[in-house]
Amino acid sequence: MESTFRYNYRPLCLYALHYLNDPDAVEDVVQECFAALWEKICSGAEVANRRAYLYRAVRNRCLDRLRQKGLQTEELKPQDAYGIIDDDDAQERSQIEARLWTAIDSLPEKCREVFLLSKRDGLKYEEIATELGISENTVRNQISKALRILKEGADRIYSFFMSFFA
């Protein structure tokens, strides 16, 4: 069960964000679904595909919360920055987003901090340099390093999967 939690918690939270725009509510929903799965397993029930069970449970709990707010059917569909998407796309994107965040988390600390200030927070190089007390050139170098590390990681994953089709 621990490995199920470890491998699915972040993707499930990102998946739930496609329905709910409240990070606290998202974490509550995902934790409730893991607790329900745990109770089900402890009661002796067989759950053949835990991952599928969790995605369905998270989706249903998110929809329940949205219905409690009185939202209409159209507002109960998953969304991203570009608008409404279907549930399969929301699941796939959540898994990709989770892998990206895992890769970002693995960056060296200073490199990650600079990268997030730039890409997540939208700060300009000059603003980052001022905030962190470093030169703009250091900011530029740290962002280049982060992008190179992330690209190398993506290339390794791509090569790994493509080796199955060769």
Describe the fold and architecture.
With 166 residues, this protein is mostly helical. It folds into 2 domains: 1-99; 106-166, Winged helix-like DNA-binding domain superfamily/Winged helix DNA-binding domain (Arc Repressor Mutant, subunit A, Orthogonal Bundle), CATH 1.10.10. It is 72% helix and 2% strand. The protein contains 7 helices and 2 strands; from the N terminus they run αααββαααα. It has helices spanning 2-17, 23-42, 50-68, 87-105, 109-119, 125-132, 136-162; strands at 79-80, 83-84. It has a two-stranded antiparallel ribbon with strand order 1-2. β1 and β2 (83-84) form a beta hairpin. α2 (23-42) packs across α3 and α6 (125-132) packs across α7 (136-162). The longest helix is centred in the C-terminal third of the chain and has 27 residues, at 136-162. The chain is elongated and about 60 Å long. The chain starts with a helix and ends with a helix. The model has no long low-confidence stretch (mean pLDDT 82).
